[in-house]
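ARCHIVE CARD
CATEGORY: sequence design from structure
SOURCE FIELD: tokenized fold
FIELD CONTENT:
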């Protein structure tokens, strides 16, 4: 069976990857694409190399009508995909030539049209309030009319699986009406998303056997099986798969385009994208999440930022020997990357791999590795968390290396001490106060006493909160003496209160994200007092800058998620 197109050519006539992000994806609660968004999404999907882009329902949504107008007026120069308009068949009792919705499909200018039609007799009778014969005529008339006007037509057979289980003859009659009127293929829709893969595949095989029609599949994700159902349908014989970017869609969503493509390409050996484009998968997923204004799912199969992040020490020890031992594919094939997380679950191998990632050579420092493993476990048991704070981890590793080669003493602080290892100053003391003023303003004031470049410095500053005031006082003391510290910008500050089972020993964990012109980095602090926890994270942020001062390469030590 040769379902694939030659690499680099449009796949529209062989195996279809059909994207419906702009129609079904837009049916997700919370998504509202502008016309400009829709044009941008279409361009990105086309650059990935999908076969068809369903742009929306012209005539039903003014925005979609406008999208097709602009798309066909030259704003969308598709290189791979065929632009497709979506709509319903003519209404019952209305001649097809007089149906406004059908006219809007023709007017859209799209070369292909997907018609949604009922195939479940209960829907025909109760929702559409017509009979099976008229529904068959609605399908046939509309398909014929559109094909006579030069459109390529697909039929989405709504509720096909439920309808076929309830009344197989009617469901088949509806497919038959479409194909005999000239539809390219009929797409079997699991509209309520209630199917499971084995049963769905059996039905698809039966339809292939009974009809010989070219079939497609459209799966909603209400059982969490939309991707699995789509793949099962492909293995059972469909040659057209409808998906949406990141699984956006009505209710629980649709089959996610990215894992579907990842699986088709890497597991089923179907090269559905133009050659070289598979490595664009992760980038495209994130770009489309950005346009949808939805945070990317960091655990999304194939493309998530954490999808190839390894936490368990046993995994890391095998990965050290060969990354293939714990990765189902090379992440770079889909444009993703592997990371090793260092946490309480780590052993020596995790630390060694992380050190390499951070640009540190621990190969001749076994004691440093042992020390760091012990320290991470000790601190994480007390509420610290290093998986999102690579910069604090790096400072700790540097301290362990310095202890191992004798250039530091146990008394040199690390991240849980008063001043971070590598910080270009020593703390004598700090004080923070909170002032609720008569005019209702709440202002914090911080004073720090530091030793910097052998000088004792005292600085006081105000801020809109205690941490802001501390940061300001610290900068006031340091920047005149170490001007490069002014480049550090604090970009995010997250606080989490950690309570043990009894709820009595709450500690506060603070994560600070910082950046300068060249890199971003994350640091952590933990203490029973939120200001002290913040102080640790702030000091690590400045210490990290001190350690990397003068570097200009774009080598981020931060957690990349
Ligand atoms: C399974 C899917 O997700 S299919 C995609 C669904 N997407 C949408 O519904 C989004 C766009 N929809 C809309 O803008 C509107 O619903 C419109 C313009 C299509 C219709 O609006 P209205 O005419 O006000 O009707 P309303 O939304 O209340 O009901 C839908 C009508 O379409 C009819 N209908 C439903 N399916 C079909 C079909 N396959 N073929 C023809 N008519 C259909 C219904 O019977 C109902 O008719 P009625 O008004 O005579 O009862
Ligand atoms: C067509 C479609 O979106 C469905 O049946 O779910």
């Amino acid at each position: 069976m040769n379902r694939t197109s030659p690499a680099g050519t449009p796949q529209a006539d062989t195996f279809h990857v059909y994207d419906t992000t702009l129609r079904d994806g837009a049916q997700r609660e919370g998504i509202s694409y502008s016309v400009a968004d829709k044009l941008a999404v279409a361009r990105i999907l086309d650059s990935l190399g999908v076969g068809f882009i369903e742009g929306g329902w012209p005539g039903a949504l003014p925005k979609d009508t406008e999208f097709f107008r602009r798309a066909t007026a030259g704003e969308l120069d598709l290189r791979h995909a065929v632009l497709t308009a979506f709509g319903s068949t003519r209404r019952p009792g209305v001649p097809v030539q007089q149906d406004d919705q059908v006219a809007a499909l023709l007017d859209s200018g799209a070369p292909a049209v997907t018609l949604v039609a009922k195939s479940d007799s209960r829907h025909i009778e109760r929702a559409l309030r017509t009979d099976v014969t008229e529904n068959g005529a609605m399908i046939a008339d509309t398909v014929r009319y559109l094909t006579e006007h030069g459109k390529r037509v697909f039929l989405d057979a709504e509720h096909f699986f439920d309808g076929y289980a309830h009344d197989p003859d009617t469901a088949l009659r509806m497919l038959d009406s479409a194909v005999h009127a000239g539809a390219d293929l009929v797409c079997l829709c699991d509209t309520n998303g209630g199917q499971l893969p084995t049963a769905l595949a059996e039905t698809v095989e039966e339809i292939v056997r009974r009809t010989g029609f070219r079939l497609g599949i459209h799966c909603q994700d209400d059982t969490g099986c939309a991707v699995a159902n789509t793949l099962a349908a492909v293995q059972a014989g469909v040659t057209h798969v409808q998906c949406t970017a990141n699984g956006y869609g009505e209710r629980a969503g649709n089959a996610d385009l990215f894992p579907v493509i990842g699986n088709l390409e890497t597991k089923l050996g179907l090269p559905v994208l133009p050659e070289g484009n598979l490595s664009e998968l992760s980038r495209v997923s994130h770009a489309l999440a950005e346009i949808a204004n939805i945070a990317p799912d960091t655990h999304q199969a194939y493309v998530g930022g954490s999808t190839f992040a390894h936490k368990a020490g046993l995994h890391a020890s095998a990965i050290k020997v060969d990354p293939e031992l714990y990765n189902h594919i090379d992440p770079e094939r889909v444009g993703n990357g592997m990371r090793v997380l260092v946490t309480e679950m780590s052993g020596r191998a995790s630390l060694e791999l992380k050190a390499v990632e951070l640009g540190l050579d621990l190969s001749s420092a076994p004691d440093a590795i042992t020390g760091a493993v012990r320290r991470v476990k000790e601190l994480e048991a007390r509420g610290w968390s290093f998986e999102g704070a690579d910069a604090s981890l790096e400072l700790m590793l540097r301290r362990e290396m310095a202890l191992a080669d004798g250039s530091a003493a146990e008394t040199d602080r690390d991240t849980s001490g008063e001043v971070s290892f590598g910080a270009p100053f020593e703390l004598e003391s700090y004080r923070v106060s909170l002032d609720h003023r008569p005019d209702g303003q709440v202002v914090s004031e911080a004073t720090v006493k530091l030793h910097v470049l052998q000088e004792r410095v005292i600085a006081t500053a105000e801020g809109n909160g205690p941490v802001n005031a501390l940061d300001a006082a610290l900068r006031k003391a340091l920047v005149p003496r170490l001007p490069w510290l002014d480049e550090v910008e604090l970009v995010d500050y997250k606080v989490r209160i950690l309570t043990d089972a009894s709820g009595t020993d709450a500690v506060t964990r603070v994560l600070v994200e910082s950046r300068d012109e060249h890199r971003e980095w994350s640091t952590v602090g933990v203490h029973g007092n939120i200001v002290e926890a913040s102080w640790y994270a702030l000091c690590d942020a400045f210490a990290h800058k001190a350690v990397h001062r003068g570097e200009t390469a774009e080598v981020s030590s931060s957690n990349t998620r």
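CARD ANNOTATION: The first strand starts at residue 16 and ends at 19. The domain at 16-292 is CATH 3.20.20.70 (TIM Barrel).
SHELF: design records, drawer C
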